[in-house]
Write a structure and sequence with these properties.
Layout: H1 11-14, H2 21-36, H3 43-68, H4 76-91, H5 98-121, H6 127-146, H7 156-163, E1 165-169, E2 173-176, H8 177-194, H9 197-207, H10 209-214, H11 219-245, H12 255-265, H13 277-296, H14 301-325
Antiparallel strand pairs: 1-2
Helix pairs in contact: 2-13, 3-8, 3-11, 3-12, 3-13, 4-5, 4-6, 4-11, 5-6, 5-11, 7-11, 8-9, 9-11, 12-13, 12-14, 13-14
Length: 328
Amino acid sequence: MSAQSLPQPTAATRRLPRINPVYVLVVALILAIIVMNPAFGEPTGYMNFLKRVTALAILSAGALYVIVSGGFDLSVGSIMTLTVIGSSMLASNDPNSTYWIIPLMLGIGAVIGLINGLVVSYLKVPSLIATLGMMITLNGVAFMWSGGAPRGYLPDTFRFFGRYNITDIPVISLLPIAVICLVVFGVILWWGMHRTNFGRMLHAVGDNQQAARLAGVPVERVRISAFVVSALTAVLAGVILGGRAGVSVDIGSGFELQAITAAVIGGAQLLGGRGSVPATIAGALALEAIFTLLNLLGLAQPVRLVVQGLILIGAVAFATYQRKRAGR
């Protein structure tokens, strides 16, 4: 058969969208969980799963903004802890306090993100070091504020976002408020990343900072904005996690690395320039599904850390290889 007679790809074939492997991974993991625990296939099972993963999914989608810009934000877990501890201390069992505490915490989060962005953008401190220092500082503040032990109480008006379920819903039986929050904030973060000029500038800065600057992109402002978005989503994730799990002095511990891992599973490039909000949320679902499977298999907590570490090491190695291959 000659080359001329070989079938040529049609325009429709060429336009077939590429499916991010993370979506296939999520489906495969969910099916594996259902096989091992059939109750997971019931509405209560998968809705509670989504309820558990909401805080991580929102946190990861916000942290993606910093990752796409070419940085890291290790302070998000401590922001979550400060949000829960601070809110419980300020609430004093007053249900009406929720309406001013959450805006206050969002304001504090914005200031923290602004400081992170200024230190990274103008003082030229590597984001890993700057946000690590902020993480240690915020953990110290939360420890001093609480005296090292859980104090105060989160009123039901505060816990509403992480604990309350809407019941008697046709087909799905119940719908957690947390899942509604995930959809709302997920759409907002998707729009900001993929449908605005800011999102395009964010990708440009992460892909090649010097080229973006020469093209007229305000690199410093874009990077600072990314840190502010990350900090704000950390506060939102803290509100939801505190509502579900209650008050703890280390409630946000480890979430910073889980957020990075979720973004990596979703295909984000750790050295910047590429990332998808829906895929990152799917990455959070996949990570939580992996943890669920490990629990069903009876494997201990350290195994979760090993899996998480291996994913991060592999992602960094792959990103470095891709950059070298591209000649950057």
